[in-house]
Amino acid sequence: xxxxxxxxxxxxxxxxxxxxxxxxxxxxxxxxxxxxxxxxxxxxxxxxxxxxxxxxxxxxxxxxxxxxxxxxxxxxxxxxxxxxxxxxxxxxxxxxxxxxxxxxxxxxxxxxxxxxxxxxxxxxxxxxxxxxxxxxxxxxxxxxxxxxxxxxxxx
Length: 155
Known about the structure:
Blueprint: E1 4-8, E2 11-20, H1 22-39, E3 51-59, E4 62-71, E5 82-86, E6 89-97, H2 103-116, E7 127-133, E8 136-142, H3 146-154
Antiparallel strand pairs: 1-6, 2-4, 2-5, 3-4, 3-7, 6-8, 7-8
């Protein structure tokens, strides 16, 4: 199945953030996800309860990730968690069926598809993995923002 372009509204989430190399994050993810799911019931104003694994940014070999859930508004932020807003914008969306082992190849297929169609993806690798059900996943990769890129080139 090919990705499709979608417009996403701004979404507020609450969750745990962590930084590290791709390998460090992969090693920490199972424990981090378990810890999040154990404390997720403390997050007020949850919307759909879907688990979101968000790659907020990449700087060289370091990535900043957040594991979170969408909230309708910020009321109380549980200890150790933070809130952030996923920016509205255009994203490439790929829907996947199956185990989470296919997530990495799913993001690679979005990248290959974008290159083939000359679609520029966010250079900071802003990506979202939403677990809709155990074996149903939505992968989002934000498209490059032409305005901010133009500003960066002008600097």
